[in-house]
Specification:
Elements lengths: L1 H17 L4 H29 L5 H30 L1
Helix pairs in contact: 1-2, 2-3
Length: 87
Amino acid sequence: MVRCCLAIPWQIAEAHSRRFEGKEQALKLLEEAMASCNRMAVYLEQTRDILGPGVDRALCEDLIRGYQKTRIKIFNLQRAWKGDWEA
């Protein structure tokens, strides 16, 4: 989980750097960042469900919503970049 959650900001930063040299690479990195957000949501759901009462359910729900919102923001960033290249 740690590697997955730490990969997200790196993937976004790397995508921004590559945005100016090759759009396919940048878009692929944004796709990977969105996949990492999805993975984190699944990992948190599994942790919540497997550990049951030993886990703060409200915290898990907040974190899951945060990763889902982050995924939407990355998707919107990807759409904006595609629009910049098409214009």
